[in-house]
Design a protein that fits this description.
There is one protein chain. With 304 residues, the protein is α/β, with parallel strands linked by helices. It folds into two domains: 202 residues, Spore Coat Polysaccharide Biosynthesis Protein SpsA, Chain A, CATH 3.90.550; 77 residues, no CATH class. It is globular, with a radius of gyration of 19 Å. About 4% of the residues have low confidence.
């Protein structure tokens, strides 16, 4: 397994970072985002992972952005592989030491990627850098970003600090670190996969940090289908339970299970998520590897 300490030489002729963008059936939004990415950071390679689009996404990219590489995570119109598997495919396809993960509705602020590269240059043990995510118009901090900023540093006095979570559309990571821990858990699909990856990186000794001055903009759709929102919430409940059963120590795993069961009594989405998690419980528990006590203490502190 690759461990902390792997670095790279800045003298290599290619840029040290690749932009990885996951998308499905959002051609126009994706094309707008690619314009922003290419204009803000020209020369940086871009990999779009198309997760089964049927709206002509691949052809439109080939026509307007011939330098952008397009990968198919699933066949057109087929069952989507999900964001976790799509990002993994993009990371594997990249050939640079660093990858910047994004969605078709997220783009990096000017100078953000350069600042991120400097962080990795200075710290060979840094595995993942979580950006400061601004959502909507006018821009405001994403809820998860606000939570990350409550750590040892604050937005009033910005400084990098360790975290155990992140927003997947605003991440710069060391490719070797992601590959070493297996990337995102592909079976998770979309929702809650970030926490599982953060735990694996931290358990392997890689640094996971929030950088308040590395900024990404995110404009998610405002008209999401309520049914889709419900499915996403259920998936997150399922995945949070799987992560707890696979990696958290006894008291934490039991506590989350009990709290989820109580929610399920009054929340239909939590109930669906709990049922889905239980169906796979034997398999998850068979591969259980509880984290060390020191990391469990960090997880408990982060959860408060």
């Amino acid at each position: 397994m690759v461990g902390p300490g792997g670095g790279y030489r800045r003298s290599v002729p290619t840029p040290p970072i690749t932009l990885v963008v996951a998308s499905r059936d959002r051609r126009e939004r994706l094309l707008e985002t690619l314009v922003r990415l290419v204009e803000t950071d020209p020369g940086i390679p871009v990999v779009v992972v198309d997760d089964g689009s049927t709206d002509g996404t691949a052809a439109a990219i080939a026509e307007r952005f011939p330098a952008v590489r397009v990968l198919a995570a699933s066949p057109p119109g087929g069952r989507p592989a999900g964001a976790a598997a799509a990002r993994n495919a993009g990371v594997r396809a990249a050939t640079t030491p660093l990858v910047a993960l994004g969605d078709d509705d997220a783009w990096w602020a000017p100078g953000a990627l350069a600042r991120a590269v400097e962080r990795f240059d200075r710290d060979p043990g840094l595995g993942l850098l979580a950006a400061h995510v601004l959502v909507g118009t006018p821009p405001r901090p994403d809820e998860a970003t606000t939570a990350m900023a409550r750590g040892p540093a604050s937005l009033a006095a910005p400084a990098d600090h360790d975290v155990l979570g992140f927003v997947a559309c605003g991440v710069v990571a060391r490719r070797a670190a992601l590959l070493a821990v297996g990337g995102f858990p592909a079976r998770y699909g979309t929702g809650g996969e970030e926490a599982a990856l953060a735990i694996e990186l931290a358990a392997a000794g890689w640094g996971v940090r929030h950088a308040p001055d590395v900024v990404v903009h995110h404009e998610p759709p405002g008209d999401r289908d309520p049914a889709a929102v419900g499915r996403r919430r259920a998936t997150m409940v399922r995945n949070d339970l799987w992560t707890a059963w696979a990696r958290r120590r006894g008291r934490a795993a039991v506590g989350l299970t009990a709290a989820t069961a109580a929610r399920a009594a009054v929340d239909a989405d939590a109930r669906r998520g709990l049922r889905a998690a239980l169906r796979e419980a034997p398999r998850v528990l068979a591969g259980r590897r509880a984290v060390r006590p020191a990391l469990e203490r960090r997880l408990r502190t982060a959860g408060r």
